[in-house]
Write a structure and sequence with these properties.
The complex is a heterodimer of chains A (109) and B (594).
Chain A lengths: L8 H10 L3 H4 L14 H5 L22 H6 L24 H4 L9
Chain B lengths: L1 H21 L20 H7 L17 E3 L1 H14 L6 H14 L4 H4 L3 H4 L12 H7 L5 H5 L1 E3 L1 H14 L55 H12 L5 H9 L7 E9 L3 E11 L6 E10 L5 E11 L3 E6 L2 E7 L5 E8 L5 E9 L5 E5 L3 E3 L5 E8 L10 E2 L4 E10 L2 E8 L6 E7 L2 E10 L4 E5 L2 E5 L10 E2 L1 E6 L12 E5 L3 E6 L13 E3 L4 E4 L16 E9 L5 E10 L24
Parallel strand pairs in B: 12-18, 20-28
Antiparallel strand pairs in B: 1-2, 3-4, 3-10, 4-5, 5-6, 6-7, 7-8, 8-9, 9-10, 11-13, 13-16, 14-17, 15-16, 17-18, 19-22, 21-26, 22-23, 24-27, 25-26, 27-28
Helix pairs in contact in B: 3-4, 7-10, 9-10
Classes of the chains: A mainly alpha (109), B alpha+beta (594).
Chain lengths: 109, 594
């Protein structure tokens, strides 16, 4: 993102949040700030099943791409196991969701 | 000395005023209604929950005594205590605690009626109209029924908000469904204004106050505060309905034979019998034997199970791998609800049970509609206590319909042949059999004018690799325009399921929409089975097998008739809140427990 410059305040906030996103969290030595999700859910604000127009075009595609943000940020607490309380180890075996999604479990809270 | 003393006195007099001026403003304390709270009178609850929930001198336990809820809601609470608060409970103790709390701190029948769909695991469109802000805010993550399934004191509703913030910290700011989170979004002129209806994404009012709604002044409160005010007023702990029911309630005596009348999407009507026996070992517990026939096909189903009744009227049963949720009416002569199964409980039968007495009862027929001018059509009539020696002339089916022959007669089923006159008026016919009348047993029609696919909007979830599939069954019903000849009017006749050819067509929502190739398979019984979960490398962008399509039913004829419904195929839900190891023969999921 070094060739892009934020033009409005929202973009500045996204750039600041991206500095502490999931990939960064996996690196050692980086200051651990609270994680603020920046994925599809926040940007498009769809429902879990359907987007704003009632279809699936506005959802994160594939859903696995946004799974960490949904999980770590407890963004979809009734649909995606939340990291804070119910399922802190949900993605323990799943470093890259798009490849390891089969290692995610169905949770019975 | 005098001056010093005077100065000292003045200083002393000034101090309290200064202190008052400097004291921080105190928030108005939450109103405490003096004698609120329901004392807990159960050794199990007091011993298993008392370590954290302290009792007062009136036997009221902290948090617990200030809330009423349905069985499902109390169950979630108990599960949360185990999951998050280090409680260990044996299954027997958990069941006892659940039974006590639901019975003594439950919902009255009239309080539960609007939201029976939650316990029935039924997917419906439900609009909570009492307060729009509450409805939108509180149904963004979970169903509004979750809220309506409990009653709390003022302080407890406030503590519920606190719990949301503690467990899910983003709830204040995340803009769910293009609205706002608990707190108003965007500061002055932001789009979280309570009074303005959602006008769609990206509608930002100008800074410094945008266009106010027609009825000024706009409500500037945070949505959560509006919702809280509504909840405290609309769903209080003490209500006249609950006072009345908790006094009148008693263990229902349901043993006996019950006639079952049901309908299952895709299969049509089902008729049969449930025999209930009281379980002497435990109060409010029953064992059941169920036998029913799918009217159109003659398929027979039998199951055995058991059930518990909560709060004197809430039946929760399990028969083989099916689950039952039913509402017991106060006269103990009728029960109704849903029996369901499936990984997401999407397969189900809507049922109505009526107690069988000595009188004959007619439940339904194997055909839903008969055509004018037809002869010798066979109809099986289902019921109970039907006389075996009945004659054709003792069965009345109304104008223009003549029962010509009784082919066979058993107490629970008659088989007859009917002729329908060419000029018989179209419309429903009541059936009179041995002195009992079953209204609208069959419909007389002259032609099929249209087809209607139900449900109009279906939903399925991909699954099968890591998470369960959610199936969607469709049904195509024939429609006659009725005597006025106009479609979609009040006198239209529903002719019941008709045989159609099923297919899927693309619902174009975006450029190069190709969902029909990926979402799954629709078979010729109207059952849609979705594709597998996970990213699909064959799809552009590695997308999931999700999408939305038209489900089309075509009725063959001189002029083919087509009807369609919308099907949304979407992503799984990764948490199963209400299942205890559901087994479904058709979803094929290896989903395991954590």
């Amino acid at each position: 993102m070094t060739h892009l410059k934020p033009v409005n305040r929202k973009a500045v906030r996204i750039e600041q949040a991206a500095a502490n996103d999931v990939v960064a969290l996996q690196r050692n030595g980086v200051p651990q700030m609270p994680h603020f999700p920046i994925g599809c859910s926040l940007v498009f604000s769809p429902g879990w099943e359907a987007d704003h127009s009632g279809g699936t075009a506005g959802l994160c595609q594939p859903v696995e791409r946004d799974i960490f943000d949904c999980h770590i940020g407890c963004y979809w607490p009734a649909q995606v196991p939340d990291q804070l309380n119910h399922a802190p180890d949900w993605t323990a075996k799943c470093a890259a969701a798009q490849k390891d999604w089969r290692k995610l479990d169905l949770i019975f809270p | 000395m005098n001056r010093i003393a005077l100065a000292w006195c003045l200083a002393m007099m000034c101090v309290p005023a200064t202190a008052r001026a400097q004291a921080p403003p105190r928030a108005a304390p939450a109103e405490v209604v003096a004698d609120e709270g329901i004392p807990v009178d159960s050794t199990v609850v007091k011993s298993r929950c008392g370590a954290c929930h302290r009792s007062d001198d009136k036997g009221r336990m902290s948090r617990i005594s200030y809330r009423r809820a349905t069985a499902e809601n109390w169950e979630l609470t108990i599960k949360r205590m185990v999951a998050l608060n280090h409680v260990t409970l044996s299954p027997e103790d958990a069941r006892s605690v659940l039974k006590y709390l639901t019975d003594h701190q439950g919902l009255a029948p009239e309080e539960l009626r609007p939201i029976v769909f939650e316990g029935e695991h039924r997917m419906v469109e439900f609009a909570y109209t009492a307060d729009e802000t509450t409805a939108r805010l509180c149904s963004s993550c979970h169903s509004i029924a979750r809220v309506l399934s409990e009653r709390r004191t003022k302080e407890e509703w406030q503590l519920l908000i606190t719990m949301h913030r503690a467990l899910y910290p983003l709830v204040d700011t995340q803009p769910m469904n293009s609205g706002s989170g608990f707190m108003r979004a965007g500061g002055r002129g932001g789009r979280g204004r309570v009074s303005a209806p959602a006008t769609g994404r990206g509608s930002q009012t100008a800074r410094g106050g945008g266009t106010a709604a027609a009825d000024a002044p706009a409500d500037d409160r945070n949505p959560v505060d509006v919702a809280l005010e509504h909840l405290e007023k609309a769903l209080p702990l003490e209500t006249s309905e609950w006072s009345a029911w908790s006094a009148a309630m008693q263990p229902p005596k349901l043993a006996g034979r019950w006639a079952v009348s049901g309908s299952q999407v895709g299969k049509g009507a089902v008729y049969g019998e449930m025999t209930i026996a009281a379980d002497p070992g435990a109060a409010d517990t029953f064992t059941t034997e169920i036998r029913y026939t799918v009217a159109r096909t003659g398929e027979n189903v039998t199951r055995r199970g058991k059930a518990v009744v909560y709060t004197g009227y809430q039946w929760r049963g399990r028969a083989d791998d099916w689950r039952e949720t039913m509402f017991v009416e106060r006269d103990w002569k009728q029960m109704w609800g849903r029996w369901f199964t499936g990984a997401y409980d999407e397969t189900g039968v809507d049922v109505k049970l009526t107690r069988i007495t000595a009188d004959p009862i007619v439940l339904g027929a194997s055909v839903t509609a008969v055509k004018t001018g037809s002869t010798g059509q066979n109809i099986r009539i289902f019921g109970a206590n039907l006389p075996e020696s009945i004659r054709a002339e003792d069965i009345g089916l109304g104008q223009g319909v003549k029962v010509t022959r009784v082919v066979s007669a058993r107490p629970n089923e008659l088989s007859v042949e009917v002729d329908v006159a060419a000029g018989a008026p179209i419309g429903a016919r009541d059936a009179s059999v041995a002195g009992t009348v079953r209204p609208a047993l069959v419909v007389v029609y002259d032609k099929v004018d249209g087809v209607k696919v139900v449900p109009e909007a279906g939903m399925a979830r991909v699954g099968g690799a890591a998470f369960p599939k959610q199936l969607q069954q469709f049904e195509a019903d024939g429609v006659n325009n009725g005597p006025d000849g106009k479609p979609d009017t009040a006198d239209d006749l529903n002719l019941g399921p008709v045989d159609v050819k099923w297919s899927m067509e693309e619902y174009p929502a975006t450029f190069n929409d190709d969902d029909t190739q990926y979402v799954g398979v629709l078979d010729q019984t109207g059952l849609f089975t979705p594709n597998v979960d996970g990213p699909n490398p064959k799809r552009s962008g590695n997308r999931n097998n999700v999408g939305d399509v038209w489900v089309v039913a075509e009725l063959a004829g001189a002029r083919p008739i087509r009807a369609r419904a919308h099907l949304l195929v979407t992503v799984p839900v990764y948490m199963n809140w209400f299942s205890e190891a559901n087994t479904s023969k058709t979803n094929g999921s290896p989903a395991g427990r954590q």
